[in-house]
Amino acid sequence: MNEEYNDFVPNVHFELIPIKDLVSNQDYQRNLSMQHVRRAAANFDINQVNPIKVSRRDGINYVFNGQHTAEIIAMVSESRETPVWCMIYDDLEYNEEADIFANQMKNVKALSPYEIFNANCEAGNDKELLIKGLVESYELKILPSAGVGGICAVGALENIYDKYGYDVLDRVLRLIIMTWEGEQKSFSANMMNGVARLLNSFGDELKETTFKEKLGVVSVKDITKNAKERRPGSLGFAEAMLVVYNKRMKPGLQWSKLYSVKATGGGKKKENKEYDAEGEVEQDAS
Q1: Percentage of the chain surpassing pLDDT 70?
Q2: Which domain holds residue 7?
Q3: What's the confidence (pLDDT) of residue 2?
Q4: How far apart are alpha carbons 250 and 187 in whole angstroms?
Q5: pTM of the full predicted structure?
Q6: How far from 49 is each of 21, 70, 91, 186, CA to CA, in Å?
């Protein structure tokens, strides 16, 4: 290689090393999460496996990025004899390993929920295509940021689909459009998740015509204000909407159901499976 590029190419080489010959107990590493290992193993995808970074000191292969990757492959293959591709650093000191571990994500730009969603659509994955098709059936678009005629709370759409299923997501969109006629802020994550909580809790007891008549005269701004005064997140929105729905109604919907009914599921969960070993990123729901 031309020497002028040496400053930009790490001094490494690649080897296939059996998992049993890797050591992952350095003090700078975080504890191994077996919950993450089991979850990733259940959704294993060979094309998402990244090389494990190894510092070879005194003949020992110390893993400083990739301990979860190794454990996932060991679990899936049911053998610690299974070899994995490793990127070997031969000239690192312990403190240099720790520094690389601490700063490896410093300049990495995480993918946004929209970027991940869009890539899954391009890959032809069923869940994302179903959600995209449903949104577009209401003459809306999924957007990377807030805009007229679109929804940018991608995480909320996926959350509702995963927790409650396609039909509830369909009803959430229909009810919001009926009630607030496509007002941009009515498609916030908390608003959509709040409506989903109500629908999941009360089912057909919640009458769409009544919801539209009562909530339609209350602005999204006022609902948001009242929700924040009650409690954080989508439950505050569900409570604020239930207050309006039940007003001057005897008997109204039972409050206890809002807190007792669990998610029914129905959507097939699909994880973002990139085994970079040292980072699980919990995505914001937009």
Answers
A1: 89
A2: 3-103
A3: 61
A4: 30
A5: 0.73
A6: 18, 10, 25, 40
